[in-house]
From TrEMBL, chain A:
Lineage: Bacteria, Bacillati, Actinomycetota, Actinomycetes, Streptosporangiales
Keywords associated with the record: ATP-binding, GTP-binding, Hydrolase, Nucleotide-binding
Species in which this protein is naturally found: Streptosporangium pseudovulgare
Domain of life where this protein originates: Bacteria
SUPFAM superfamilies assigned: P-loop containing nucleoside triphosphate hydrolases (SSF52540)
Sequence similarity: Belongs to the GPN-loop GTPase family.
Record-given protein name: ATP-binding protein
From TrEMBL, chain B:
UniProt cross-references to InterPro entries, sorted A to Z: DUF742, WH_DNA-bd_sf
Pfam families with a match to the protein in the record: DUF742
Residues annotated as signal peptide: none
UniProt name for this protein: DUF742 domain-containing protein
Length: 201, 128
């Protein structure tokens, strides 16, 4: 690092590229559990203070027109070699925080919508949001102990999902299961953005 | 250091004051960074000679510089020093202006069409 110039060119220092994946779903659907099961660090919590219409930056006269909201988010990290770092964010479940999703969804690789079959409707706002925003997403049905098992087609029907959108079962507590969920999402995002997989695969 | 940058409030930012000083006091009332977007996953790393320039900094900025000896995201910095991400953004932009950190913006949505990225991420996930 000694050769790094400490002026504005310092931005040239080789840092990994960060990629974000969102984990959405209703309250108690297992968002933080999923983040924790695949993260290499204990999930951390950060508070984001959001300002809407924050135009007059240092101008106090603009304060009256601004509205700020503070929301907490849980996140984890997966290091992918030297080049990439994956950050997983558990988004707030409440629909009233849609404006936070906008900030979060900007530049996101994609989203996992966790569905809890006991409260399937809780994930509707997340689905609506990502569909509208055209963020690649998959649905992962978190299989809670004691919950009635639906088959995936039933869930797909219940959620009126487009046939291209993957629906998978998962156990958010298990690392292997969380890994599979993420792989399914990344493959789906790749198909959505780059078209069908090339023949070399 | 920019001429507009004064530190009249440094004495307010003691360890004991942490709990009662509202985050925007640390930023002298500013809610937006001087430049840059500072996404939650923008990475920052301390640059320049170790410990240099840290003397005149607020404790929070010193803590950020120390924590960023290894690259850290805005979200990690916020969690580590226990301040809202919005406050951390402003402090990071000051540190960037002072040449004490370098940053790496994340992939933009248009960069998401890079096949190499997906292959690397998939390989990395499968190897977990």
């Amino acid at each position: 690092m000694d050769s790094v110039r400490s002026d504005r060119d310092a931005g040239r220092v080789t840092l990994p590229k960060a990629i974000k994946i969102l984990v959405a779903g209703g309250f108690g659907a297992g968002k933080t559990t999923l983040v924790g099961s695949v993260s290499e660090i204990e999930p951390l919590r950060t508070e984001e203070t959001l300002t809407h219409q924050g135009i007059g930056i240092d101008d106090l006269s603009g304060v009256e027109g601004k509205k700020t909201t503070t929301v907490a988010m849980d996140f984890g990290r997966i290091t992918i070699g030297d080049d990439y770092r994956l950050y997983l964010f558990g988004t707030p479940g409440q629909e009233r925080f849609w404006f936070l999703w906008d900030e979060l969804a900007l530049g996101a690789l994609g989203a996992v919508v966790l569905a809890d079959t006991r409260r399937l409707a809780d994930c509707f706002p997340s689905l609506d949001y990502f569909e509208r925003r055209e963020t690649p997403f998959i649905v992962a049905v978190n299989c809670f102990d004691g919950a009635r098992r639906y088959d995936l087609d039933e869930v797909r029907l219940g959620l009126t999902l487009h046939e291209d959108i993957p629906v998978v079962m998962c156990d958010a507590r298990r690392r292997e299961s969380g890994k599979e969920v993420l792989i399914t999402l990344v493959e789906h995002a790749m198909r959505m953005r780059l078209g069908p997989a090339p023949s070399s695969r | 250091m920019p001429a507009s940058d004064e530190h009249p409030d440094t004495q307010w930012v003691g360890e004991a004051a942490g709990a009662i000083v509202r985050p925007y006091v640390l930023t002298r009332g500013r809610t937006e960074p001087t430049r840059g977007r500072f996404d939650l996953i923008t990475l920052a790393v301390a640059v320049g000679p170790a410990h240099a320039g840290a003397g005149g900094l607020d404790p929070e900025c010193q803590a950020i510089v120390r924590f960023c000896r290894r690259p850290q995201s805005v979200a990690e910095i916020a969690a580590h020093i226990n301040l809202p991400a919005g406050t951390v953004r402003v402090l990071l932009s000051d540190l960037l202006d002072q040449g004490l950190i370098a940053t790496q913006e994340p992939h933009s949505e248009t960069d998401m069409h890079d096949e190499k990225l997906y292959k690397a991420v998939l390989d990395g996930l499968r190897a977990l």
